[in-house]
User: Which sequence fits this backbone?
């Protein structure tokens, strides 16, 4: 990418996928809103450091991932237990709350690289190609992480 977009242009294009990623990971709308706001504030404050050599989503995603990791560390310390990640999209009906809670517990137990791939693909709607570029790994690696993540999650959920 040769021309660096304005912050507003980048936010317009990347805001929704970043929100979806954080919403899928956070599990509740209030936390997702807070994490998204913190991500965008950090991105705004550091926009001059973005050189425009990569896709802006890659840059926003790196900030979002760091904000999310920091949040999880704080939650784990405060609660003394793993922070549960949500499956249901924000605003979706809560008809299957018990199933959602079980899935959250099991998704949290999926190893990090697989969980991250599942969240990016199914919540932030990132393609395999985009994820490979964003994470700096081969497309084959992303495909195998998605397949393995689905397999692990399926086995864990079937045991419930």
Assistant:
């Amino acid at each position: 990418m040769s021309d660096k977009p304005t912050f507003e242009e980048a936010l317009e294009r990347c805001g929704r996928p970043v929100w979806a990623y954080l919403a899928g990971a956070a599990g509740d709308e209030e936390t997702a809103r807070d994490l998204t706001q913190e991500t965008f504030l950090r991105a705004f404050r550091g926009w001059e450091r973005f050189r425009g050599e990569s896709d802006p989503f890659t840059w926003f995603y790196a900030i979002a991932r760091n904000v999310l990791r920091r949040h999880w560390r704080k939650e784990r310390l405060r609660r003394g237990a793993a922070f549960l990640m949500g499956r249901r999209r924000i605003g979706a009906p809560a008809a299957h709350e018990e199933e959602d809670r079980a899935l959250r517990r099991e998704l949290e137990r999926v190893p990090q690289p697989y969980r991250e791939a599942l969240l990016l693909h199914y919540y932030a709607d990132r393609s395999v190609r985009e994820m490979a570029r964003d994470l700096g790994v081969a497309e084959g690696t992303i495909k195998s992480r998605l397949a393995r993540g689905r397999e692990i999650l399926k086995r864990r959920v079937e045991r419930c």
Observations:
- The two ends are 46 Å apart (CA to CA).
- Confidence is low (pLDDT under 50) at residues 77-95.
- The chain has seven helices and no strands.
- Helices lie at 7-26, 29-45, 56-79, 97-108, 112-122, 128-135, 139-159.
